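Sample intake sheet
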Amino acid sequence: MGCFSSRVEAPTEELPGPPAVELDAPTPADTAAPTQPAAALPSATDLGVSEEKLELWRKKGGGDLEPVLASGAVALLDAQWIISHAEAGGVLAHRQALPKEAFLSLADLVEATGKAGWLPVAALSYPWLTKDHPDPRGANLARVARALKALLSRPDLIPRLGVFWDFGSLHQHPDPPNGVLRTEEQNALFKEGLGCLGTLYSHKYTRVLRLTSFPDGHKAEDPAEGTNVAKYFDRGWCFTEQSWAGLTKAGFLSLDLGKMRAGTEYDCYSLAIDCTQDGGRRPPLLPSAFAAELESKSFTNGKDDKPLVKRLYEAAFKEQFGKATKLVYYNLGWGDAEAAQLAEALFVDNKKQPELAPTEELPGPPAAERDAPTPADTAAPTQPAAALPSATDLGVSEEKLAEWRKRGGGDLEPVLASGAVD
């Protein structure tokens, strides 16, 4: 969810608020992630998709997202539509004002699920730039579109991608300064969507795209009254989303788009390399550690938002670690302190011993088992240069291959060449 300072404030004379603000602070019952028995989930016939595709979608945990997608609480934007809208110089409108073709249906997402180790779902984490609109000039839209274009450069891996962007994915207050608010039905769906945020961002097989920097030309020093001017890492919602993304997700599925370089034409591989520099993630935080750090983060409405995100984080922590059997911690540059923090998270329930899943079931680079990694555990696999394919073998230029390996791509070549990772 975008990182505007509040999601739950009551509109007042003094604070028009972003379209996402809530009339009342949601209670735990309001924001509880909806549960639905497997028997109640739609069939392949209901969706108009093949049994094989639906089985693959649910094997990767897509069923966790189906209740809010089917109810309309959450609508995912079509990445290709975002790209086209940005290239036309557009600005993102609130959800109710977007055309039907801006969205992907549940059936579209199921059909887009491939054999690669992830779901065709991405969630955007970013700071709102003004109190009334998250991106009034379309500057962040252009940056996100650039990353999405790179991700879609391999249609055999990612044919289509649904993007959760709070402003376009959750029902908004269309014009709060003039008293145009969500309907009662939309309000109920908004609360239902809030309850699923932890699953969207923390799900092991969704992507998280983090805009950790302001766009060029943004003047945070001259904001409108009521605007949160804190940077990404100091905002409560952004911190929460980043923490969700750091639970059980493989590092290459959580990308820091603030690390994209101007003038660089990316594909999906080079984007992942640049956007996971310096490891790209911290070890997961225990709910108690998360709550302690949250105290230093910026909220406009901390009275309501802090307890809300604490509840959502704890629920996501229990959900994801309750399911995890094997985790990817690879080439992150962690030391003893990070290993100790990881061990705390993994063994918070000492009665539950981790099970080790077969390696071939886990997409992504070689994984450390569910125990505190030693330097040997977390070291990248080495392979003599002579064993790596040549430019002639790959049918690419020497210059391109040298640049790939200069950025560390050679670390990934053994598993890519072996077929362990698609």
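Comment: DSSP finds 19 helices and six strands in the chain. Strands lie at 76-78, 103-104, 121-125, 162-164, 207-210, 254-256.
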